[in-house]
Amino acid sequence: MTASTATDAPGSPAADVLAAGVVVSRPGRQVLLVHRPKYDDWSFPKGKLDPGEHRTVAAVREVAEETGLHVRLASPLASQRYPLSSAGKGRCKTVFYWTGRVVGDDDVSCYRPNDEIDAVEWVPADEAVERLTYPHDRETLVEALGCRKKSQAVVVLRHAKSRSRKAWRRDDRERPLLDLGRAQAERLVPVLAAYGVTRVLSSTSTRCLQTVEPFADTTGWELESTASLSEEGADAALLDQIAEGVRADGRPTVLCTHRPVLPLLCDALDVDDPGLEVSDLLVLQVRRGRVVSHEHLSV
Question: What mean pLDDT is predicted for residues 217-246?
């Protein structure tokens, strides 16, 4: 799911237009479709990323703007990439997609049509395959139907950029975030919210606590801490207990920890360690205790 990184410099290929959307489903094998009068087409709710906006945040925002529904993201889907005939020769669009479910009321009967979206409908999946205008959307729907069952997000988060270990002369557990790290922590807030995180579990080290404090402060969710996620206190048995507890709890959870702890934590969660950089996330979707999808995100 990596988009083109080309620039608009003279002689270089034009950068892709980036967009994000969600295949939203509900019980009864129904999916959410929108109709755009400008193009007279049926598609999934989606739209362009705002400057500096993370693609996960854009996906949730676009669903809210186009349908009035608030969703949380679930499994990632293959991105779409296709040429834009109206954007000049060689220009393409990349659309990032996830499956998703509505948080709260999913009624769209009171939706008010507008110039951009004049119809929002829950459509049976079999009918949606026929109604969707574009072949790439039909392919995305088929993929989404294979992973539409409800799952729980478990987010493994490496703490944001902190003071250098060499330059810090006090207890390493008290080493704080740099200004860059604090900015990264703020950018994490809407990304974690996009997955519906309601449980915040962190290492007791200052740099981890400061990474998730903005999210806890913004949402009001309790910030729990445990030395078992710290560099000094982690061991395989304790992390196995944490992983088992998170699966049993059922709440979408973020676990904030350190680079040296990640291999042990990933083993406990039955996934490969992707080598997270500072403030990176490994987002797992867990169903009945089993990881059904995962994605590596950077902010």
Answer: 97
